[in-house]
UniProtKB/TrEMBL annotation:
Catalytic activity: 5-dehydro-4-deoxy-D-glucuronate = 3-deoxy-D-glycero-2,5-hexodiulosonate
Biological process, per Gene Ontology: D-galacturonate catabolic process; D-glucuronate catabolic process; pectin catabolic process
EC number: 5.3.1.17
Organism in which the protein naturally occurs: Hymenobacter properus
Protein known as: 4-deoxy-L-threo-5-hexosulose-uronate ketol-isomerase
Length: 276
């Protein structure tokens, strides 16, 4: 498990392209036959991915957690962006198709990830945050995640939002998780942009066609910085930073948050004319 330390807006404003990528971009989320984990010091969120091919992959407990097992003091969200798979939690098997989600509650000791077909492996995107209470392990399919339509074709941001783990959905301590799918011909996400000083956010861009890219914007509203992102790469967004992007084609992204609350609407809008 690698680590990313938190930095503030003043430091970020001095970074060149390599520095921005080093601090905020996670390039390797999915590796065949492995579990990749990145520990961030933004609200102690862990961002990772599990791509089982042959044998099932068991969630490890890195030494740096100083815990007896990974979820001793944590909760976990897993959202599948690959082929059909299963997650086994303390002997109970949960089936997850593409864009289905599983919340795993604090205290779960053994978590294993498997693919139904190794030739079309599941890709479980993982988010984990500290927890202080036990909530039941719960599966929610994409069909059960009531879609919300937002944006318009005229502003190139027509999109469908699916919410899984949030205040009115799967219950958690502080983890919030869902995904957004842009419609064909639309390229802007989270526009107009916003910040939410009460929690951090992580993005995983996926379903981006071969050779296409997303230009992700971060930083303070008056001190923005660009970052080019490829398919199945993740962005760390500090609480003080905007997070918005424009693609060279339509795409999807998973958003996940941790911090003071689980209210999806807790955000501070930034007017377009305020951006610099």
């Amino acid at each position: 498990m690698t680590q990313r330390f938190a930095i503030g807006p003043r430091e970020t404003a001095t970074l060149n392209t390599n520095g921005i990528r080093e601090h905020f971009l996670i390039e390797n989320i999915f590796t065949a036959g492995e579990i990749e984990l990145t520990y961030t010091h933004y609200d102690r969120m862990i961002v990772g991915g599990a791509q089982p091919t042959g044998a099932a992959l068991t969630l490890p407990c890195p030494e740096s957690l100083k815990a007896n097992f990974f979820l001793e003091r944590r909760e976990l969200g897993a959202l599948n962006v690959g082929g059909a798979g299963t997650i086994t939690v303390d002997g109970t098997v949960y089936e997850l198709g593409n864009q289905d989600c599983l919340y795993v509650g604090m205290g779960s000791k053994e978590v294993a990830f498997a693919s139904v077909d190794a030739a079309n492996p599941a890709k479980f995107y993982l988010l984990s945050s500290p927890a202080h209470a036990v909530h039941p392990t719960t599966r929610r399919t994409q069909a059960e995640a009531t879609p919300v339509e937002m944006g318009a074709m005229e502003t190139a941001n027509e999109r469908t939002i699916y919410k899984y783990i949030y205040q009115e959905g799967i219950q958690s301590c502080q983890l919030v998780m869902g995904l957004t799918q842009l419609k064909p011909g639309n390229v802007w996400n989270t526009m107009p942009s916003h910040t939410h000083d009460r929690r951090m956010e992580a993005y995983l861009y996926f379903n981006l066609p071969q050779g296409q890219r997303v230009l992700h914007l971060l930083g303070e509203p008056t001190e923005t910085r660009p970052l080019w992102v490829s398919n199945e790469q993740a962005i760390l967004s500090p609480p003080w930073s905007i997070h918005t992007g424009c693609g060279s084609s339509n795409y999807a992204f998973i958003w996940g948050m941790a911090g003071e609350n689980r209210e999806y609407t807790d955000m501070d809008a930034v007017p377009l004319d305020a951006l610099r």
